[in-house]
Design a protein that fits this description.
Elements lengths: L3 E4 L2 E4 L10 H5 L2 E9 L2 E2 L2 H14 L8 H14 L5 E8 L16 E8 L5 H6 L1 E5 L20 H12 L4 E5 L5 E4 L3 E6 L2 E5 L9 H12 L4 E4 L3 H5 L3 E6 L3 E8 L2 E2 L7 H16 L2
Parallel strand pairs: 7-8, 7-14, 11-12
Antiparallel strand pairs: 1-2, 1-6, 3-4, 3-5, 5-6, 8-9, 10-11, 10-13, 13-14, 14-15
The structure holds 3-[O-phosphonopyridoxyl]--amino-benzoic acid.
Length: 287
């Protein structure tokens, strides 16, 4: 069966799904998106993802032409039409087609696109043995430019950092903010564990407020671990007992080396492993 793609209220065969080459999403990266997952047919944290999408849109003066509840329904219906239960869901809202100029007033009709697919996972060995990462020379967006809290279609900054990761033989790269402080990875938030306390860069470090990040903070506190959101730097990673990343695609993945420094004893740590277990239980129980 050819996958079905949702565009503006209708489902199209993948091969028939298209939008205009004049769309400002394509011409300027003018739009917003979300990456969401479903487990056993249940969409994880759908309301939070829809809320973040609408907040990103508001921040760029983009009015999404359907209510939030209709967007949530559209996600569920697209998933059902594709008969997918464990899936990756990409929601994209573009500014729509316009003239060849920046002015968004010259665009019409924002395009709402929902693509569902099988989830591409990191290989299971990485959850067992952990990931090596490097720090990218590319700085995370300055909050006064496109604020990293906005999940906009402008991901070039993170793509450049991702290329640096690939060139170093890694799957993820750590990004620093304009002050040289720890921000996040190209598509994941970062955490460290030291002396039984969990630390993660605060939102004002210039990061996306990850939905997995928020879930893991809640889980960690429920499990009795103190969690501190604060300003951090690379040394906090180098001297950590444990390090891990969180994101919709990765869930929670251990990091065992950063910039050639072995973290802890070079194996995924006990708190990381416990939180991964708790997170996997949470997503499979679907709260
Ligand atoms: N930071 C950035 C910059 C992200 O893009 C996260 C953190 C984690 O946020 P969530 O809400 O997912 O916990 C993201 C999310 C992909 C992909 O296809 C990327 C993300 C999510 C899903 C898929 O690479 N990034």
């Amino acid at each position: 069966m050819d996958p079905k793609v949702y565009i503006n209220g209708k489902l199209f065969e993948k091969s028939e799904a298209r939008i205009s080459v004049f769309d400002h999403g394509l011409l300027y990266g003018d739009g917003v998106f979300e990456g969401i997952r479903s487990y056993s047919g249940r969409v994880f944290r759908l309301t939070q993802h829809v809320d973040r999408l609408y907040e990103s849109a508001r921040a760029i003066h983009l009015e999404i032409p359907i209510p939030r509840a209709a967007m949530a329904d559209a996600v569920v219906q697209t998933l059902a039409a594709n008969k997918l239960t464990d899936a990756y869901i990409r929601v994209v809202v573009t500014r729509g087609a316009g003239s060849l100029g920046l002015d968004p007033r010259k665009t019409t009709d924002p395009q709402i696109i929902i693509i569902t697919d099988k989830i591409a996972l990191y290989p299971p060995e990485l959850y067992e043995h952990g990931l090596k990462i490097v720090t990218a020379a590319t700085t995370r967006n300055h909050p006064n430019a496109v604020n990293p809290r906005i999940k906009s279609l402008n991901y070039l900054n993170n793509i450049l950092a991702k290329i640096e990761a690939t060139q170093a033989g890694c799957l993820e790269a750590l990004m620093l903010n304009h002050k040289g402080e720890l921000a996040e990875c190209t598509g994941d938030n970062v955490f460290v564990v030291q002396h039984g306390t969990i630390h993660t860069p605060s939102i004002d470090s210039g990061i996306l407020e990850g939905i997995t990040r928020a879930s893991v903070i809640d889980l960690a506190r429920e499990a009795g671990y103190p969690v501190i959101e604060r300003t951090m730097d690379r040394l906090d990673v180098f001297k950590a007992d444990e390090c891990f990343l969180t994101g919709t695609a990765a869930e929670l993945i251990p990091v065992i080396e950063c910039d050639g420094r072995i973290i802890g004893d070079g194996k995924p740590g006990p708190i990381t492993r416990e939180l991964l277990k708790r997170f996997q239980a949470l997503v499979r129980e679907g709260h």
